[in-house]
Design goal:
The chain has 252 residues and is α/β, with parallel strands linked by helices. It has helices spanning 19-29, 46-52, 67-76, 107-116, 128-134, 139-144, 180-189, 195-204, 210-220, 224-227, 236-249; strands at 15-16, 36-40, 56-60, 80-83, 97-101, 121-127, 147-155, 160-161, 168-175. A seven-stranded mixed beta sheet has the order 4-3-2-5-6-9-7. Strands 1-8 form a two-stranded antiparallel sheet. The longest helix has 14 residues, at 236-249.
Length: 252
């Protein structure tokens, strides 16, 4: 494959140049003609065009240097829409799948938005360090638990231009059914504002009155300093502490 534009290593741009891996992504995704698929970081469009040959695609790219090439691909495919902007600032609701060689610098943000947006399935190439985080006993590992994650294959550094510093992985994510506690805690973790407000909001969404919600928060036994922390900065230890407190109160 000829590459006329030079990917920017410092921006985390690594263009997948291995057709075998692209074909494997398409195979694993099991695409249907009426599927609505997102691609994040279209780059030079190798995966974009392969996806457009199978289903309806919305592809995001922020680097204007690739616009000429991507526009040509878009003209050849009526079922493809290219958006030149930040994928994280758009709604992902209603899409069937994300299939993408994601920008590694945005890995955590993409996972969190996918969970919030209830994306049912993803086929992603991620960096090895992020893959390890997904299976770790950590906050991001807890969030990733919303999906069953199957490592499909390792992707060698040489499969990209320029090669990343570490090996990558092709992963298949399928949204799984979670129990009431997991669903509640994910809503709290991903909520806006303070820990206290995020817990109260999640309880209100489950039919509790505001008074009941405040009483439950008080009964968990967290200090005001902890309750006033931003929910997005919750640690795994705090998540487990809230879980244990709620289990003791038999809320669910």
């Amino acid at each position: 494959m000829e590459h006329n534009e030079n990917p920017d290593f410092d921006k985390g741009q690594h263009m997948l140049a291995d057709v075998r891996i692209i074909n494997r992504e398409i195979e694993v995704a099991g695409l249907k003609k009426d599927d609505k698929v997102l691609e994040i970081g279209a780059g030079q469009g190798a995966l974009t065009e392969a996806l457009a040959g199978k289903c309806n695609v919305v592809a995001f790219e922020q680097d204007s240097r690739f616009k000429e090439r991507l526009s040509a691909i878009e003209k050849r495919n009526d079922n493809l829409k290219i958006i030149y902007g930040d994928a994280l600032s758009y709604s992902w609701m209603g899409y069937d799948k994300i299939v993408s060689n994601i920008p590694y610098l945005l890995s955590e943000s993409i996972l969190i938005k996918a969970v919030k947006s209830e994306v049912p399935e993803m086929v992603l190439i991620v960096g090895e360090k992020f893959k390890e985080k997904l299976f770790s006993d950590s906050k991001i590992g807890y969030i990733a638990g919303r999906y069953e994650i199957h490592p499909v294959c390792a992707v060698k550094r040489e499969s990209f231009i320029p090669p990343p510093r570490t090996q990558s992985w092709l992963l298949h994510f399928k949204r799984r059914k979670v129990d009431k506690m997991e669903g509640f805690m994910l809503e709290v973790i991903l909520g806006k504002g303070k820990v206290k407000n995020s817990i109260i909001r999640a309880l209100l969404n489950r039919g509790k009155t505001k008074r009941q919600a405040k009483e439950i928060v008080a009964a968990i036994g967290l200090t005001e300093a902890v309750l006033n922390k931003p929910a997005v900065k919750m640690t795994l230890a705090l998540i487990k502490r809230i879980e244990n407190g709620l289990e003791g109160l038999k809320i669910f």
